[in-house]
Amino acid sequence: MWSVWRTVLEENEKLAQARLAAVEIFQQQIADDAKILKNHKLQGAKKCLDQLAVIQKELQVCVQDVDKTKKLYFDEEHSAHGVRDKARDIEEKLKKKKGGFFTSITSLQKNSAKYSTKREQLDEKSTGARNDYLLCLAAANAHQNRYFLVDMQLCMNSMESGVFDKVAEYLSLMGRTELLTCSAWQNSFTNIRDQAKQLTREYNIQCCYLYYPVLKQHIQYPFESCDNDPVETITAEHDSAAATLSKEARRWATRIARENNVIRESVKKLQIYNALRESGQKVDPNDQNGPDLETKMEEMKQNIRKAETAKAKAEARIEALRDGGVNVDEWLQEAESLNVQDIQRSASSLSDHPSSDSFYDSDFADGETVTVQPPQVEKQQDKDSVGSQQDQFENAEVDGEWGRQRMSSCTVTERDVGVEVDELSDWLGKMALWHHLFFKDVVIFSMASRL
Protein backbone atom coordinates (compact mmCIF):
# COMPACT_ATOMS: atom_id res chain seq x y z
CA MET A 1 0.00 0.00 0.00
CA TRP A 2 2.81 2.40 0.88
CA SER A 3 4.57 1.59 -2.39
CA VAL A 4 1.45 2.41 -4.40
CA TRP A 5 0.91 5.60 -2.42
CA ARG A 6 4.52 6.60 -3.06
CA THR A 7 3.93 5.90 -6.75
CA VAL A 8 0.88 8.16 -6.64
CA LEU A 9 2.94 10.97 -5.12
CA GLU A 10 5.79 10.49 -7.60
CA GLU A 11 3.44 10.38 -10.58
CA ASN A 12 1.62 13.48 -9.36
CA GLU A 13 4.97 15.24 -9.06
CA LYS A 14 5.85 14.21 -12.62
CA LEU A 15 2.47 15.39 -13.88
CA ALA A 16 2.90 18.69 -12.07
CA GLN A 17 6.29 19.15 -13.72
CA ALA A 18 4.78 18.27 -17.10
CA ARG A 19 2.02 20.80 -16.52
CA LEU A 20 4.56 23.46 -15.54
CA ALA A 21 6.51 22.71 -18.73
CA ALA A 22 3.31 23.06 -20.73
CA VAL A 23 2.56 26.36 -19.02
CA GLU A 24 6.05 27.61 -19.84
CA ILE A 25 5.54 26.63 -23.47
CA PHE A 26 2.21 28.44 -23.55
CA GLN A 27 3.77 31.47 -21.91
CA GLN A 28 6.84 31.74 -24.11
CA GLN A 29 5.63 30.47 -27.47
CA ILE A 30 2.02 31.61 -27.37
CA ALA A 31 1.28 34.33 -24.84
CA ASP A 32 4.44 36.42 -25.32
CA ASP A 33 4.49 35.93 -29.08
CA ALA A 34 0.79 36.79 -29.27
CA LYS A 35 1.47 40.12 -27.58
CA ILE A 36 4.17 40.92 -30.14
CA LEU A 37 1.84 39.85 -32.94
CA LYS A 38 -0.91 42.05 -31.58
CA ASN A 39 1.32 45.14 -31.46
CA HIS A 40 2.67 44.43 -34.94
CA LYS A 41 -0.85 44.00 -36.26
CA LEU A 42 -1.98 47.29 -34.75
CA GLN A 43 0.98 49.13 -36.28
CA GLY A 44 0.48 47.47 -39.66
CA ALA A 45 -3.24 48.18 -39.59
CA LYS A 46 -2.63 51.85 -38.89
CA LYS A 47 -0.14 52.09 -41.75
CA CYS A 48 -2.40 50.22 -44.14
CA LEU A 49 -5.36 52.37 -43.26
CA ASP A 50 -3.35 55.50 -44.08
CA GLN A 51 -2.28 54.02 -47.42
CA LEU A 52 -5.81 52.86 -48.12
CA ALA A 53 -7.11 56.38 -47.51
CA VAL A 54 -4.66 57.77 -50.11
CA ILE A 55 -5.61 55.09 -52.64
CA GLN A 56 -9.30 55.67 -52.11
CA LYS A 57 -8.79 59.42 -52.56
CA GLU A 58 -7.05 58.81 -55.89
CA LEU A 59 -9.89 56.52 -56.94
CA GLN A 60 -12.37 59.16 -55.93
CA VAL A 61 -10.62 61.74 -58.19
CA CYS A 62 -10.74 59.30 -61.09
CA VAL A 63 -14.45 58.71 -60.57
CA GLN A 64 -15.05 62.46 -60.41
CA ASP A 65 -13.32 62.86 -63.82
CA VAL A 66 -15.66 60.22 -65.20
CA ASP A 67 -18.63 62.15 -63.90
CA LYS A 68 -17.36 65.38 -65.48
CA THR A 69 -16.71 63.88 -68.91
CA LYS A 70 -20.04 62.10 -68.74
CA LYS A 71 -21.86 65.35 -68.05
CA LEU A 72 -20.01 67.14 -70.87
CA TYR A 73 -20.76 64.28 -73.23
CA PHE A 74 -24.46 64.38 -72.39
CA ASP A 75 -24.61 68.16 -72.89
CA GLU A 76 -22.81 68.11 -76.26
CA GLU A 77 -24.81 65.14 -77.45
CA HIS A 78 -28.12 66.79 -76.58
CA SER A 79 -27.14 69.98 -78.44
CA ALA A 80 -25.92 68.07 -81.49
CA HIS A 81 -29.03 65.94 -81.49
CA GLY A 82 -31.31 69.03 -81.61
CA VAL A 83 -29.38 70.67 -84.44
CA ARG A 84 -29.27 67.36 -86.28
CA ASP A 85 -33.08 67.08 -86.18
CA LYS A 86 -33.61 70.62 -87.49
CA ALA A 87 -31.10 70.14 -90.31
CA ARG A 88 -32.89 66.94 -91.31
CA ASP A 89 -36.25 68.77 -91.49
CA ILE A 90 -34.81 71.51 -93.68
CA GLU A 91 -33.24 69.03 -96.03
CA GLU A 92 -36.51 67.16 -96.39
CA LYS A 93 -38.30 70.39 -97.24
CA LEU A 94 -35.70 71.27 -99.85
CA LYS A 95 -36.01 67.88 -101.41
CA LYS A 96 -39.75 68.40 -101.69
CA LYS A 97 -39.26 72.02 -102.76
CA LYS A 98 -42.00 72.99 -100.50
CA GLY A 99 -41.78 76.26 -98.67
CA GLY A 100 -43.93 77.87 -96.16
CA PHE A 101 -46.36 80.71 -96.61
CA PHE A 102 -43.80 83.15 -95.36
CA THR A 103 -40.69 81.08 -96.25
CA SER A 104 -39.10 80.91 -99.65
CA ILE A 105 -36.88 78.26 -101.14
CA THR A 106 -33.88 80.56 -100.90
CA SER A 107 -34.30 81.04 -97.21
CA LEU A 108 -34.60 77.29 -96.79
CA GLN A 109 -31.34 76.78 -98.62
CA LYS A 110 -29.61 79.35 -96.42
CA ASN A 111 -30.98 77.73 -93.26
CA SER A 112 -29.96 74.34 -94.55
CA ALA A 113 -26.40 75.48 -95.10
CA LYS A 114 -26.37 77.18 -91.69
CA TYR A 115 -27.66 74.11 -89.80
CA SER A 116 -25.39 71.82 -91.72
CA THR A 117 -22.37 73.79 -90.59
CA LYS A 118 -23.64 73.97 -87.03
CA ARG A 119 -24.42 70.24 -87.05
CA GLU A 120 -20.91 69.43 -88.12
CA GLN A 121 -19.48 71.56 -85.34
CA LEU A 122 -21.74 70.06 -82.69
CA ASP A 123 -21.09 66.55 -83.97
CA GLU A 124 -17.38 67.20 -83.66
CA LYS A 125 -17.81 68.48 -80.08
CA SER A 126 -20.09 65.58 -79.21
CA THR A 127 -17.62 63.12 -80.62
CA GLY A 128 -14.80 64.68 -78.62
CA ALA A 129 -16.88 64.67 -75.45
CA ARG A 130 -17.84 61.04 -76.08
CA ASN A 131 -14.25 60.09 -76.61
CA ASP A 132 -13.17 61.84 -73.42
CA TYR A 133 -15.95 60.13 -71.52
CA LEU A 134 -15.00 56.73 -72.85
CA LEU A 135 -11.34 57.30 -72.05
CA CYS A 136 -12.14 58.41 -68.50
CA LEU A 137 -14.49 55.49 -68.12
CA ALA A 138 -11.80 53.04 -69.22
CA ALA A 139 -9.30 54.65 -66.87
CA ALA A 140 -11.79 54.55 -63.99
CA ASN A 141 -12.54 50.87 -64.57
CA ALA A 142 -8.85 50.10 -64.71
CA HIS A 143 -8.36 52.06 -61.50
CA GLN A 144 -11.18 50.12 -59.85
CA ASN A 145 -9.62 46.83 -60.95
CA ARG A 146 -6.31 47.94 -59.58
CA TYR A 147 -7.94 49.00 -56.32
CA PHE A 148 -9.89 45.81 -55.69
CA LEU A 149 -7.46 43.31 -57.14
CA VAL A 150 -4.13 44.76 -56.08
CA ASP A 151 -4.28 47.61 -53.63
CA MET A 152 -7.09 46.17 -51.48
CA GLN A 153 -5.51 42.71 -51.32
CA LEU A 154 -2.12 44.13 -50.44
CA CYS A 155 -3.70 46.22 -47.72
CA MET A 156 -5.61 43.25 -46.32
CA ASN A 157 -2.49 41.09 -46.35
CA SER A 158 -0.55 43.83 -44.64
CA MET A 159 -3.26 44.27 -42.02
CA GLU A 160 -3.36 40.51 -41.32
CA SER A 161 0.38 40.50 -40.58
CA GLY A 162 0.41 36.69 -40.65
CA VAL A 163 -2.27 36.49 -37.94
CA PHE A 164 -3.98 33.46 -39.43
CA ASP A 165 -0.77 31.49 -39.76
CA LYS A 166 0.32 32.47 -36.26
CA VAL A 167 -3.04 31.61 -34.69
CA ALA A 168 -3.04 28.28 -36.51
CA GLU A 169 0.46 27.65 -35.18
CA TYR A 170 -0.64 28.58 -31.66
CA LEU A 171 -3.61 26.22 -31.78
CA SER A 172 -1.50 23.43 -33.22
CA LEU A 173 1.12 23.91 -30.51
CA MET A 174 -1.55 24.01 -27.82
CA GLY A 175 -3.17 20.82 -29.06
CA ARG A 176 0.15 19.02 -29.39
CA THR A 177 1.23 20.07 -25.90
CA GLU A 178 -2.08 19.05 -24.36
CA LEU A 179 -1.91 15.69 -26.10
CA LEU A 180 1.56 15.11 -24.67
CA THR A 181 0.36 16.14 -21.22
CA CYS A 182 -2.72 13.94 -21.43
CA SER A 183 -0.56 11.07 -22.62
CA ALA A 184 1.65 11.56 -19.56
CA TRP A 185 -1.45 11.61 -17.35
CA GLN A 186 -2.73 8.43 -18.96
CA ASN A 187 0.59 6.65 -18.54
CA SER A 188 0.90 7.74 -14.91
CA PHE A 189 -2.58 6.73 -13.86
CA THR A 190 -2.36 3.51 -15.85
CA ASN A 191 0.73 2.67 -13.83
CA ILE A 192 -1.10 3.54 -10.61
CA ARG A 193 -4.10 1.44 -11.64
CA ASP A 194 -1.94 -1.57 -12.49
CA GLN A 195 -0.14 -1.35 -9.15
CA ALA A 196 -3.42 -0.88 -7.28
CA LYS A 197 -4.81 -4.06 -8.86
CA GLN A 198 -1.92 -5.98 -7.34
CA LEU A 199 -2.72 -4.83 -3.81
CA THR A 200 -3.88 -7.50 -1.38
CA ARG A 201 -4.75 -7.23 2.26
CA GLU A 202 -2.57 -10.19 3.20
CA TYR A 203 0.52 -8.74 1.53
CA ASN A 204 0.01 -5.36 3.19
CA ILE A 205 -0.50 -6.96 6.58
CA GLN A 206 2.72 -8.92 6.16
CA CYS A 207 4.52 -5.70 5.22
CA CYS A 208 3.02 -4.01 8.28
CA TYR A 209 4.22 -6.90 10.43
CA LEU A 210 7.65 -6.56 8.87
CA TYR A 211 7.91 -2.87 9.73
CA TYR A 212 6.20 -3.27 13.13
CA PRO A 213 7.13 -6.69 14.55
CA VAL A 214 5.34 -5.91 17.81
CA LEU A 215 1.99 -6.38 16.02
CA LYS A 216 2.81 -10.02 15.34
CA GLN A 217 4.02 -10.88 18.82
CA HIS A 218 1.24 -13.21 19.93
CA ILE A 219 2.02 -13.31 23.61
CA GLN A 220 1.39 -16.60 25.40
CA TYR A 221 2.34 -17.04 29.01
CA PRO A 222 4.08 -20.34 29.76
CA PHE A 223 3.92 -22.14 33.09
CA GLU A 224 6.89 -21.26 35.23
CA SER A 225 7.64 -24.12 37.57
CA CYS A 226 8.99 -23.50 41.03
CA ASP A 227 11.96 -25.50 42.25
CA ASN A 228 11.90 -27.79 39.20
CA ASP A 229 8.30 -28.80 39.76
CA PRO A 230 7.59 -31.43 37.03
CA VAL A 231 3.79 -31.07 37.11
CA GLU A 232 2.40 -28.71 34.45
CA THR A 233 -1.29 -29.66 34.44
CA ILE A 234 -4.15 -29.47 36.91
CA THR A 235 -4.14 -32.44 39.28
CA ALA A 236 -6.67 -33.80 41.75
CA GLU A 237 -4.43 -35.93 43.91
CA HIS A 238 -6.17 -34.93 47.14
CA ASP A 239 -9.81 -35.18 48.04
CA SER A 240 -10.11 -31.51 48.82
CA ALA A 241 -8.54 -30.61 45.48
CA ALA A 242 -10.97 -32.91 43.63
CA ALA A 243 -13.94 -31.31 45.35
CA THR A 244 -12.61 -27.84 44.66
CA LEU A 245 -11.96 -28.65 41.00
CA SER A 246 -15.49 -30.02 40.71
CA LYS A 247 -16.73 -26.71 42.06
CA GLU A 248 -14.60 -24.88 39.52
CA ALA A 249 -15.96 -27.02 36.69
CA ARG A 250 -19.53 -26.25 37.66
CA ARG A 251 -18.71 -22.62 38.18
CA TRP A 252 -17.21 -22.07 34.75
CA ALA A 253 -19.78 -24.25 32.98
CA THR A 254 -22.48 -22.04 34.47
CA ARG A 255 -20.48 -19.00 33.43
CA ILE A 256 -20.33 -20.22 29.82
CA ALA A 257 -24.10 -20.76 29.78
CA ARG A 258 -24.68 -17.32 31.27
CA GLU A 259 -22.41 -15.59 28.76
CA ASN A 260 -24.16 -17.43 25.93
CA ASN A 261 -27.43 -16.07 27.24
CA VAL A 262 -25.96 -12.55 27.43
CA ILE A 263 -24.72 -12.84 23.85
CA ARG A 264 -28.10 -14.03 22.58
CA GLU A 265 -29.99 -11.29 24.38
CA SER A 266 -27.54 -8.61 23.25
CA VAL A 267 -27.67 -9.78 19.64
CA LYS A 268 -31.46 -9.76 19.78
CA LYS A 269 -31.54 -6.22 21.18
CA LEU A 270 -28.94 -5.11 18.67
CA GLN A 271 -31.12 -6.38 15.83
CA ILE A 272 -34.14 -4.57 17.28
CA TYR A 273 -32.19 -1.30 17.62
CA ASN A 274 -30.84 -1.67 14.10
CA ALA A 275 -34.36 -2.17 12.72
CA LEU A 276 -35.54 0.93 14.59
CA ARG A 277 -32.65 2.96 13.21
CA GLU A 278 -33.35 1.80 9.65
CA SER A 279 -36.98 2.81 10.08
CA GLY A 280 -35.85 6.36 10.87
CA GLN A 281 -36.09 6.29 14.65
CA LYS A 282 -33.54 8.18 16.73
CA VAL A 283 -34.42 6.84 20.17
CA ASP A 284 -36.13 3.74 21.49
CA PRO A 285 -39.94 4.33 21.55
CA ASN A 286 -40.10 2.35 24.80
CA ASP A 287 -37.41 4.55 26.37
CA GLN A 288 -37.94 8.08 25.13
CA ASN A 289 -35.84 9.64 27.88
CA GLY A 290 -33.00 7.16 27.50
CA PRO A 291 -29.92 7.41 25.31
CA ASP A 292 -30.20 7.37 21.55
CA LEU A 293 -30.12 4.23 19.44
CA GLU A 294 -26.49 4.67 18.44
CA THR A 295 -25.43 4.72 22.09
CA LYS A 296 -27.53 1.68 22.88
CA MET A 297 -26.20 -0.21 19.87
CA GLU A 298 -22.66 0.58 20.89
CA GLU A 299 -23.47 -0.57 24.42
CA MET A 300 -24.83 -3.86 23.07
CA LYS A 301 -21.71 -4.36 20.97
CA GLN A 302 -19.54 -3.80 24.02
CA ASN A 303 -21.66 -6.25 26.00
CA ILE A 304 -21.24 -8.85 23.27
CA ARG A 305 -17.51 -8.26 23.20
CA LYS A 306 -17.18 -8.57 26.96
CA ALA A 307 -19.38 -11.66 27.03
CA GLU A 308 -17.41 -13.33 24.25
CA THR A 309 -14.16 -12.54 26.06
CA ALA A 310 -15.49 -13.92 29.33
CA LYS A 311 -16.82 -16.99 27.51
CA ALA A 312 -13.45 -17.61 25.86
CA LYS A 313 -11.71 -17.36 29.22
CA ALA A 314 -14.23 -19.71 30.83
CA GLU A 315 -13.88 -22.21 27.99
CA ALA A 316 -10.10 -22.09 28.41
CA ARG A 317 -10.52 -22.86 32.10
CA ILE A 318 -12.87 -25.73 31.25
CA GLU A 319 -10.31 -27.16 28.84
CA ALA A 320 -7.61 -26.87 31.48
CA LEU A 321 -9.86 -28.72 33.92
CA ARG A 322 -10.63 -31.39 31.31
CA ASP A 323 -6.92 -31.86 30.67
CA GLY A 324 -6.50 -32.36 34.41
CA GLY A 325 -9.01 -35.22 34.42
CA VAL A 326 -11.95 -33.30 35.86
CA ASN A 327 -15.39 -34.39 34.65
CA VAL A 328 -16.51 -31.11 33.09
CA ASP A 329 -18.94 -32.55 30.52
CA GLU A 330 -21.48 -33.30 33.23
CA TRP A 331 -21.51 -29.70 34.39
CA LEU A 332 -21.61 -28.41 30.80
CA GLN A 333 -24.68 -30.49 30.02
CA GLU A 334 -26.33 -29.38 33.23
CA ALA A 335 -25.58 -25.72 32.47
CA GLU A 336 -26.98 -26.04 28.95
CA SER A 337 -30.23 -27.49 30.30
CA LEU A 338 -30.76 -24.58 32.68
CA ASN A 339 -33.06 -21.75 31.67
CA VAL A 340 -32.31 -18.08 32.13
CA GLN A 341 -33.81 -17.89 35.63
CA ASP A 342 -31.90 -20.95 36.76
CA ILE A 343 -28.64 -19.50 35.45
CA GLN A 344 -29.18 -16.22 37.29
CA ARG A 345 -30.23 -18.03 40.46
CA SER A 346 -27.25 -20.36 40.26
CA ALA A 347 -24.89 -17.47 39.62
CA SER A 348 -26.15 -15.60 42.66
CA SER A 349 -26.12 -18.60 45.00
CA LEU A 350 -22.71 -20.12 44.24
CA SER A 351 -20.13 -18.18 46.22
CA ASP A 352 -17.75 -20.58 48.02
CA HIS A 353 -14.01 -20.30 47.42
CA PRO A 354 -11.06 -22.41 48.52
CA SER A 355 -9.64 -21.32 51.84
CA SER A 356 -6.04 -21.89 50.81
CA ASP A 357 -3.95 -19.22 49.14
CA SER A 358 -3.91 -20.99 45.76
CA PHE A 359 -4.35 -19.82 42.20
CA TYR A 360 -8.11 -20.07 42.66
CA ASP A 361 -8.09 -16.94 44.77
CA SER A 362 -6.69 -14.96 41.86
CA ASP A 363 -9.62 -15.97 39.66
CA PHE A 364 -11.76 -13.32 41.27
CA ALA A 365 -9.40 -10.41 40.75
CA ASP A 366 -11.03 -9.50 37.44
CA GLY A 367 -14.44 -9.02 38.97
CA GLU A 368 -15.96 -12.21 37.55
CA THR A 369 -19.11 -13.58 39.15
CA VAL A 370 -18.70 -16.48 41.55
CA THR A 371 -20.60 -19.58 40.42
CA VAL A 372 -19.42 -22.39 42.71
CA GLN A 373 -21.44 -24.37 45.20
CA PRO A 374 -20.47 -26.63 48.09
CA PRO A 375 -19.32 -30.06 46.84
CA GLN A 376 -21.94 -32.80 46.56
CA VAL A 377 -19.65 -35.63 47.68
CA GLU A 378 -17.06 -35.43 50.44
CA LYS A 379 -15.08 -38.21 51.92
CA GLN A 380 -16.02 -38.93 55.52
CA GLN A 381 -13.35 -38.85 58.16
CA ASP A 382 -13.25 -40.40 61.59
CA LYS A 383 -16.89 -40.16 62.77
CA ASP A 384 -16.00 -40.53 66.40
CA SER A 385 -13.62 -37.57 66.44
CA VAL A 386 -15.37 -35.36 63.89
CA GLY A 387 -19.02 -35.60 64.94
CA SER A 388 -19.02 -32.29 66.65
CA GLN A 389 -16.90 -30.82 63.84
CA GLN A 390 -19.59 -31.76 61.33
CA ASP A 391 -22.18 -29.95 63.40
CA GLN A 392 -20.02 -26.87 63.53
CA PHE A 393 -19.38 -27.07 59.77
CA GLU A 394 -23.10 -27.28 59.07
CA ASN A 395 -23.65 -24.25 61.27
CA ALA A 396 -20.98 -22.39 59.32
CA GLU A 397 -22.59 -23.44 56.05
CA VAL A 398 -25.96 -22.24 57.32
CA ASP A 399 -24.46 -18.88 58.17
CA GLY A 400 -22.81 -18.64 54.77
CA GLU A 401 -25.96 -19.77 52.99
CA TRP A 402 -28.03 -17.24 54.94
CA GLY A 403 -25.69 -14.49 53.79
CA ARG A 404 -25.79 -15.72 50.23
CA GLN A 405 -29.58 -15.83 50.24
CA ARG A 406 -29.69 -12.25 51.38
CA MET A 407 -27.26 -11.27 48.65
CA SER A 408 -29.18 -13.23 45.99
CA SER A 409 -32.30 -11.24 46.86
CA CYS A 410 -30.34 -8.10 46.00
CA THR A 411 -28.83 -9.47 42.78
CA VAL A 412 -29.66 -7.56 39.60
CA THR A 413 -29.00 -8.44 36.01
CA GLU A 414 -26.79 -5.51 35.15
CA ARG A 415 -23.12 -6.48 34.71
CA ASP A 416 -21.54 -3.72 36.79
CA VAL A 417 -23.83 -4.20 39.78
CA GLY A 418 -23.49 -7.97 39.46
CA VAL A 419 -19.74 -7.67 39.86
CA GLU A 420 -20.15 -5.87 43.17
CA VAL A 421 -22.67 -8.46 44.38
CA ASP A 422 -20.33 -11.28 43.44
CA GLU A 423 -17.44 -9.68 45.30
CA LEU A 424 -19.59 -9.27 48.40
CA SER A 425 -20.84 -12.84 48.06
CA ASP A 426 -17.23 -14.01 47.84
CA TRP A 427 -16.45 -12.16 51.03
CA LEU A 428 -19.38 -13.78 52.82
CA GLY A 429 -18.25 -17.21 51.63
CA LYS A 430 -14.77 -16.60 52.99
CA MET A 431 -16.24 -15.44 56.29
CA ALA A 432 -18.28 -18.65 56.52
CA LEU A 433 -15.21 -20.77 55.88
CA TRP A 434 -13.24 -18.80 58.50
CA HIS A 435 -16.08 -19.36 60.94
CA HIS A 436 -15.94 -23.09 60.18
CA LEU A 437 -12.18 -23.30 60.74
CA PHE A 438 -12.42 -21.34 63.97
CA PHE A 439 -15.00 -23.69 65.46
CA LYS A 440 -13.04 -26.67 64.15
CA ASP A 441 -10.01 -25.55 66.16
CA VAL A 442 -12.20 -25.04 69.25
CA VAL A 443 -13.61 -28.57 68.98
CA ILE A 444 -10.18 -30.10 68.57
CA PHE A 445 -8.91 -28.17 71.56
CA SER A 446 -11.84 -29.33 73.70
CA MET A 447 -11.35 -32.96 72.70
CA ALA A 448 -7.67 -32.75 73.51
CA SER A 449 -8.46 -31.32 76.94
CA ARG A 450 -10.84 -34.22 77.65
CA LEU A 451 -8.18 -36.71 76.76
UniProtKB/TrEMBL annotation:
Keywords for the protein's UniProt record, in alphabetical order: Coiled coil
Tell me which stretches of the chain form a coiled coil.
290-324
Protein name from the UniProt record: F-BAR domain-containing protein
Q: Does the keyword Transmembrane apply?
A: no
Q: Which GO terms describe its cellular component?
A: neuromuscular junction; recycling endosome
Task: Provide ranges: composition bias, Low complexity.
Answer: 346-362
| Gene Ontology process terms (BP) | neuromuscular synaptic transmission; regulation of actin filament polymerization
Which part of the chain is the F-BAR domain?
1-204
What is the top-level taxon of the source organism? Eukaryota
| Disordered, as annotated region | 343-407
